[in-house]
Input
Amino acid sequence: MERYRGFVLIPEEDLSWQVRPERSPMHVLPFRAPACSIADVKALVDWRLARLGRDRRPKAELLPQTKGNGWRLAEVQDQQKTA
Output
């Protein structure tokens, strides 16, 4: 059994998954996922939450764009070029 984003993921003997919300009110009804990996089940939960507009994670295209490791690498390189 594993918890993920407000859901309990329960593996079944036939390698399928039972997915249940941890608490009420239930925005997504309990469902079964076919035989697949835990990553696939998590992706299915994410997809269902996104369909309902309940996915609160930032979208990748809305995140600020960074260069290199995110530490003003371009500014340091520009300073080195002019020095």
Observations:
- The two ends are 58 Å apart (CA to CA).
- Residues 36 and 55 are 22 Å apart (CA to CA).
- Helices lie at 38-52, 73-82.
- The chain has two helices and four strands.
